[in-house]
Write a structure and sequence with these properties.
A hairpin with a 2-residue loop joins strand 6 and strand 7 (about 155). The protein is built from five helices and eleven strands. It is an alpha+beta fold. Keywords: DNA-binding.
Length: about 210
């Protein structure tokens, strides 16, 4: 990320109190220095340090990026765990979490090679975030309409539509309708020095 780009805006400190200690512990477990992890995440070391000390809180896309870099899941970043890797996740046990304007529910157990989420993306929320990282992603539109940009191509998805793509293709997700869009989202968890979260060219731009 160049110095002319603006770092991602984060949530208030109270939003995710468990994140700070987990971020530091998991970075050290991955044998990454603050500088190396920040570079892979497209952040400055000072910004990542503020995340690790609880002065700032990351958005959901940033959590996904850090989880990939550290070879873990968003659940573990949040200090959550599933006992004995339960195969079944009951609806009553899916607690909503908000980050960066998105609301998401864990739809799979922690510690797996893939992570499954149910996600609500509000209209106008982080439509300028472009992600590029190793692995694959699959999403399925449950409700609302989705704008999915893959490289230079814009796709408009309606309920029942799905997409499965290589995550090294620059991709951007945004809700088309004022009520937002609800998705099922599955992604692979790969630890790689090329994993990164990048900003789109213009803040607030929609795909």
């Amino acid at each position: 990320m160049s110095s002319s780009e603006t770092e991602p805006r984060d949530e208030p400190v109270e939003a995710l109190p468990a994140v700070a200690p987990q971020l530091r512990a998991l970075r050290r477990r991955a044998s990454l220095t603050l500088e190396a992890a920040a570079r892979q995440a497209g952040l400055s070391p000072a910004h990542l340090s503020r995340l690790e000390t609880g002065q700032r809180q990351p958005s959901l896309p940033m959590l996904l990026s850090l989880a990939r870099i550290y070879g873990t899941t968003v659940s573990e970043l949040l200090g959550e765990s599933a006992a004995d890797r339960d195969a079944v996740v009951r609806a009553a046990d899916m607690e909503p979490t908000e980050a960066g304007g998105w609301t998401y529910w864990q739809a799979g157990a922690a510690g797996r090679g893939m992570q499954a989420l149910r996600v609500h993306v509000p209209h106008g929320s982080q439509g300028d975030i472009v992600r590029v990282h190793p692995g694959e992603e699959w999403l399925y539109v449950l409700k609302g309409r989705l704008r999915l940009r893959l490289g230079d191509t814009l796709h408009r998805l309606s309920p029942g539509d799905s997409a499965h793509f290589d995550s090294l293709t620059p991709h951007r997700i945004a809700a088309q309708d004022p009520d937002g869009v609800e998705l099922l989202f599955v992604h692979t968890l790969l630890q790689s020095p090329t994993a990164a979260l990048c900003l789109g060219p213009t803040h607030g731009e929609t795909p």
